[in-house]
Amino acid sequence: MKALIIGAGIGGMSAAAALKQQGVDCDVFEAVKEIKPVGAAISVWSNGVKCMNHLGMGHIMDDLGGPMRAMAYQDGKSGVTMTQFSLIPLIEAVGERPCPVARAGLQAQMIDHWGRDKVQFAKRLERVEQTNAGVVAHFTDGSIAQGDFMIAADGAHSVARSHVLGYQAQRRYAGYVNWNGLVTADKEIAPLEQWTTFVGDGKRVSVMPIAGGQFYFFFDVPLPLGLPEDRATVKENLKTYFEGWADPVQLLIERIDPKTTNRIEIHDIEPFNSFVKGRVALLGDSAHSTTPDIGQGGCSAMEDAVVLGQCFAKTKEVKEALLQYQSLRHERAKDLVLKARKRCDVTHGKDMLVTQAWYDELKQETGENIIAGLKDTILGGPLG
């Protein structure tokens, strides 16, 4: 039995690992000649780390995971701490730590774990054909590949999605722009083992520790879609948007490298009902493109892969296994997309009265409520 895996990102490599565990041969195809990840880093919460352990790639998290042992919110302008608490109770409750990691390192090590020479690069999917015997992938270079089924992990701009749905799903602008990158960790910006977030006016500035003595940073600003901004003006833009904010924020802006800072207009896609059509299944962002507001985009793709493997462990009947996968993943994935959207609206000032009420709640927060929410999300995954 052979699977065609479209996409060598986090979802595709997780799917390949999961299917290999069940004795399924996989051919992996990646659209670009060289993977250049969108976004500097990713927060892999405990459910994602559990998935990586299950898939035989836990060592990657050990290598790359940052020492994130505490969490804090600070008033963006005054710098005053609104709430600060240990994440140890969360780790003890769910049985695994969270691991913020550099995205480039994560994807590179996942590919290397699979075998870089076994991934076919510069293979961009053009269309999908299903036959009685299997599935055919047609690529833009004129080549084809045949297999018994296809796992389309080809991202938010998925080509395979329209084949499965029968229509072109539209991306929805979430209302804010995100700048992200990596800087050398510095306690003058934030404690070295803490996820620190500055908030105010519907804006957000965050730093997370990753391995190698670095901070992953991001800035969020509610803005209209399509502004003429790019890396050439990133520092000037951020200084304008965060004028009057606390000294650590200003120091962070000074430290960033515009050449390696990403600017992303954040989108998601309205959840849909079908992940599967015949012998083709969507996985990861192609199935449930989400905003990053609860840090579950990559984790959800890893969960997809784990469930996919579990379904093929129960049956090798392709269509039956794929339908079981869809049944087990649809509601969970939808829930995460909508949770992220709800958190996005609160965080980014869609209704500033609601956002201000959240700021007021943070000043009374002991950590218990935030940890309870994180715990609920983590334990809702396929591995508990």
From TrEMBL:
GO terms for molecular function: FAD binding; FAD-dependent urate hydroxylase activity; urate oxidase activity. It catalyses: urate + NADH + O2 + H(+) = 5-hydroxyisourate + NAD(+) + H2O. PANTHER family: MONOOXYGENASE (PTHR13789), PUTATIVE (AFU_ORTHOLOGUE AFUA_6G14510)-RELATED (PTHR13789:SF309). Keywords: FAD, Flavoprotein, Monooxygenase, NAD, Oxidoreductase, Purine metabolism. Its cofactor is FAD. It holds the Pfam family FAD_binding_3. Residues 2-337 form the FAD-binding domain. The lineage of its organism: Bacteria, Pseudomonadati, Pseudomonadota, Gammaproteobacteria, Oceanospirillales. GO terms for biological process: purine nucleobase metabolic process; urate catabolic process. This is FAD-dependent urate hydroxylase.
